[in-house]
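R.M. (postdoc): so does anyone remember the format we settled on? I'll just put the structure tokens first.
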């Protein structure tokens, strides 16, 4: 029920803007789990899917506000090999995480452009691997997007990067408790209807 209300609130807030463009997109994610800001990274063949909708409203001739609503597969999507409590490291975290994300990006320039902005995500589901490090610490994930793209007629192509600031898991390292955050590399192909 909460998921439905969150989806409705985000969608209504997006459609409330005086938009001049609407589009759909799909693409792949290369997600990772990182200790802090990419101090140690687990990138264990974590290829996933993303699909969503985008609105765009022009603020000036060279700056637009470009919010999206995105279903995104994140986390580590491949089982680790073996487990030993004496050799625990970040590569043994196997959590498939599925999010509904709302990137609130700003787009700079038009045909070839840069995108940047904050993002809020809501965790829809979690699938744990063989080693259980507990439930994710929060259903919400906050972070920042940075990327770029280009348009050809109604098609757009984007390459982007997201890094979270919210703790997803606390990982029991040998000497301390590591603070694990989400990270995602994204490649997107989309179509703008107007």
């Amino acid at each position: 029920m909460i998921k439905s209300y969150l989806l409705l609130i985000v969608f209504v807030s997006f459609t409330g803007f005086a938009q001049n463009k609407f589009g759909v997109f799909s693409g792949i994610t290369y997600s990772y789990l990182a200790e802090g800001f990419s101090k140690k990274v687990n990138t264990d063949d974590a290829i996933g899917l993303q699909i969503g909708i985008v609105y765009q409203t022009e603020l000036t001739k060279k700056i637009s506000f470009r919010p999206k609503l995105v279903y995104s597969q994140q986390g580590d999507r491949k089982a680790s090999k073996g487990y030993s409590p004496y050799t625990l490291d970040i590569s043994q975290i196997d959590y498939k995480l599925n999010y509904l994300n709302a990137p609130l990006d700003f787009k700079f320039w038009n045909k070839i452009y840069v995108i940047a902005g904050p993002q809020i995500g809501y965790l829809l589901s979690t699938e744990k691997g063989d080693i259980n490090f507990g439930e994710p610490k929060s259903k919400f994930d906050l972070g920042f997007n940075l990327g770029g793209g280009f348009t050809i007629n109604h098609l757009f192509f984007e390459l982007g990067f997201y890094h979270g600031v919210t703790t997803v898991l606390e990982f029991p390292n040998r000497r301390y408790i590591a603070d694990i955050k989400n990270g995602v590399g994204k490649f997107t192909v989309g179509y703008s209807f107007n």
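R.M.: ...and that's the designed sequence above, right after the tokens. Also worth knowing: The longest strand covers residues 112-128. The helical segments are 2-15.
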